[in-house]
Design brief:
heterodimer, A: 324 residues, mainly alpha, 79% helix, 0% strand, B: 276 residues, MetI-like fold, two-stranded antiparallel sheet, 10 helices, globular
Chain lengths: 324, 276
């Protein structure tokens, strides 16, 4: 019976988070819509550019349905976006979804590939730094990660290109994958962008893992464990880490969200046909439907990752399951 | 080691300060220390480094060192402008929310939560896709986006300070909102805000550079370090170091600022420890 009650409480907490996440998504979609539709310089003037006389503008607005109230247009846009209908690109006049789908797949491939390497590496390094707190290893890692955090992705990327591909010729400089590229080739072509992402993300994740473990290490029950004579690595791994898991999961999710954004710059460095490149192109061409669609996708991924972090945090932390 | 704010400088902090001074010097005195004018074409494109041109020439035959020095003006000036604007907006709204409480606080906090629910880069893309990438648009957009983080911090700081007796006294004395923000709360919140300024500056600096690198920031004929990386990027395939100079300059300044911020945060936690 107690288990039932607990299950119910967890369920309620999770349902609350889900509701909040959904609300945030709607809010974000409103911002995206408002940002592109209500700001001065609408779709019609973007399309007409130099031919934007009053008369032309009025006709164009009518044609595009821009003379109707913004609320109605928002409802239509969001409704069809939920069904996967994202309109047509202004530049290519093709349905946005046709360009979006393969690029989304490419970007997700890159992000998952990088995360699969970065997450275990960062957690291991963070735990090691926490176990040997104050040692030379800890201080070295602190200094190195402080520097890697400050280094922009393109410097890391170009340094890797200069030495690993141009000088040594081991790896390709560009990651020009096509839909026909096999998985093996894909994994090989994307080694450099993945390495760049891993280097940048590991520093953040590792520092925050270390900080959350050390915060737990200051609590009395850890001192008790030490007094019982348990070796330090065992205290960290068995006693501190389970309680640090919730903040660490949070850190991982935050950094994965960062990974999704960092991908935009890395894609540009390696001319990788992903979602980021599509969005950057669309922004410079004022291709509003594509910008909206990409923005909505990036924002929902970001919100989804935060939501997953929240829910995993609840599941991982017994104290969150028992409020009071 | 010399002292600053009554504390001994750590070695990384001293290095960081030296890097910041070097960069500010380059930005301020670029026209006087640069060997050539930034638009001067002094030789063939991509000429190798020589005594007259220590870093070589760029895609149009301009001196790379000169371009780098003038680029410092654009990069650092732009980021300082963005950070100061974002701080002004963030501190005023954050302190107002903390002092007024009630519906003002509610409205401002929810609006900020909503803005923070979306990645900053994506938000910036959406605004820039409609408004274009003129410098004033760039500055105001990035300042508004960045001010959300300043709002969070200054609201939290002011919440603690506004509960202290001397602020209550000022309120009872009948002082206005402006006085309470500027004369009662701001002096007490100075130390953490300085550290935050460093953090926000390096964020704005990297952000502008990234936008320029993507071709959505500073537009030609103006050039900052980010757009220089973009202009020179193909040369990496010919094993030239050209794009690495501006990219390295960006990294160097950010590392310097982070070293100083790290030290500022560590002395703050130390003084708090002593008081407690």
């Amino acid at each position: 019976m107690a288990a039932d009650e607990r299950g119910e409480r967890v369920f309620k907490l999770i349902a609350q988070r889900l509701g909040l996440g959904l609300l945030t998504l709607v809010g974000a979609s409103m911002i995206i819509f408002a940002g592109t539709e209500i700001l001065p310089g609408d779709l019609a003037s973007a399309l007409l550019q130099n031919n934007a006389t009053e008369e032309n503008l009025a006709t164009m607005r009518k044609e595009l349905g821009l003379d109707r109230p913004a609320v109605v247009r928002y409802g239509e846009w969001f409704g069809s976006a939920l069904k996967g209908e994202l309109g047509r690109s202004l530049a290519t006049e093709r349905p946005v979804i046709d360009d979006l789908a393969p690029r989304l797949r490419n970007t997700l491939f890159l992000a998952i590939y990088a995360a699969a390497i970065a997450v275990p590496l960062a957690i291991a390094l963070g735990l090691m730094a926490a176990i040997w707190q104050g040692s030379t290893f800890d201080r070295m890692v602190n200094l190195v990660t402080l520097m890697t955090i400050s280094i922009p992705e393109y410097l890391v990327g170009y340094l890797l290109v200069k030495y690993l591909s141009v000088r040594l010729g081991w790896l390709p400089t560009l990651s020009n994958v096509t839909p026909d590229t096999t998985l093996g080739d894909r994994l090989f072509l994307t080694i450099l962008p993945v390495a760049t992402l891993v280097l940048v993300v590991v520093a953040h994740m590792m520092r925050m893992t270390r900080a959350s473990v050390l915060a737990i290490m200051a609590s009395p029950y850890i001192e008790m464990a030490f007094l019982k004579g348990i070796p330090k690595w065992q205290v960290v791994v068995r006693h501190a880490f389970p309680n640090a898991l919730a903040p660490v999961i949070n850190v991982v999710a935050l950094n994965l969200a960062y990974l999704i954004i960092g991908v935009v710059v890395v894609e540009a460095v390696f001319v990788y046909p992903g979602l980021g490149q599509l969005m950057v192109d669309a922004v410079s061409k004022h291709d509003v439907p594509v910008v909206q669609a990409c923005g909505l996708l990036f924002a929902s991924t970001f919100i989804l990752l935060n939501l997953i972090a929240d829910i995993c945090g609840i599941l991982a932390n017994p104290r969150l399951r028992h409020p009071r | 080691m010399p002292r600053l704010f009554g504390h001994r400088l750590s070695i990384p902090a001293a290095i960081g300060l030296a890097i910041i001074a070097l960069n500010l010097g380059a930005a301020l005195f670029a026209p006087w220390i640069a060997p050539y004018d930034q638009a001067d074409i002094v030789g063939d494109a991509w000429d190798d480094p020589s005594l007259a041109h220590p870093l070589g020439l760029d895609n149009l035959g301009r001196d790379l060192l000169t371009r780098l020095l003038f680029g410092a003006r654009m990069s650092i000036g732009l980021s300082l402008l963005i950070t100061s604007t974002s701080f002004t907006i963030g501190i005023v709204t954050g302190f107002t929310a903390a002092v007024c409480k009630g519906w003002v606080d509610m409205a401002l906090s929810r609006a900020v939560d909503l803005m923070l629910s979306m990645p900053t880069l994506i938000f910036a893309f959406i605004v820039l896709s409609v408004l274009g990438t003129d410098l004033p648009v760039l500055i105001i957009t990035l300042a508004c986006l960045d001010s959300t983080r300043v709002f969070r911090l200054s609201r939290a700081l002011a919440m603690g300070i506004a509960a202290l007796e001397y602020v209550e006294v000022a309120k009872l004395r009948g002082e206005g909102l402006g006085w309470i923000i500027a004369r009662e709360i701001l002096p007490a919140a100075r130390a953490p805000l300085i550290a935050e300024f460093g953090l926000r500056f390096s964020f704005a600096f990297l952000f502008v550079a990234a936008l320029s690198f993507l071709g959505l920031g500073v537009q030609p004929p103006d050039a900052d370090w980010g757009s220089m990386v973009r202009d020179y990027r193909d040369m990496i395939n010919l094993d030239l170091a050209a794009p690495l100079w501006p990219a390295g300059a960006i990294a160097l300044l950010t590392v310097g600022v982070n070293f100083v911020v790290d030290w500022l945060l560590s002395i703050q936690s130390r003084t708090h420890g002593e008081n407690a």
